[in-house]
Amino acid sequence: MNLEIITPDKKVFAGQATAVTFPGADGQFQVLNQHAPLVSTIGKGSLVVESAGGKNTYQINGGVVEVLNDNVLVLAEAIA
């Protein structure tokens, strides 16, 4: 799936991912290839991106995620 992680300052990540784990309001949730359409807020915590190159972890302070047609767009407030 195609993943983009964007903050007000810059584009943090753009590329292919096999799984993305988000900090949700009621706990973590994961998005995999061919996931059903989804729009959700995300909380403060670790956003984990799994790709062919390995795992990357970003600390975020909240935001919004949209999943549609195997594209995942993350609008994050800030990334540490």
In brief:
The chain is an all-beta fold and 80 residues long. The chain has strands at 2-6, 11-16, 19-24, 27-32, 38-51, 54-68, 71-76.
Q: How is this structure best described in words?
A:
This protein is mainly β and 80 residues long. The chain contains no helices and 7 strands. A 7-stranded mixed sheet has the order 2-1-7-6-5-3-4, with no helix packed on it. The chain is globular, with a radius of gyration of 11 Å. The relative contact order is 0.32.
Task: Note the main attributes of this structure.
mainly beta; ATP Synthase, domain 1; 7 strands; single chain; seven-stranded mixed beta sheet; 80 residues
Q: What is the CATH fold-level name?
A: ATP Synthase, domain 1
User: Percent of residues in helical segments?
Assistant: under 10%
CATH class label: Mainly Beta
- What is the name of the CATH superfamily? F0F1 ATP synthase delta/epsilon subunit, N-terminal
Strand order of the largest sheet: 2-1-7-6-5-3-4
General shape: globular
Radius of gyration: 11 Å
Mean pLDDT: 95
Topology:
Layout: E1 2-6, E2 11-16, E3 19-24, E4 27-32, E5 38-51, E6 54-68, E7 71-76
Parallel strand pairs: 1-7
Antiparallel strand pairs: 1-2, 3-4, 3-5, 5-6, 6-7
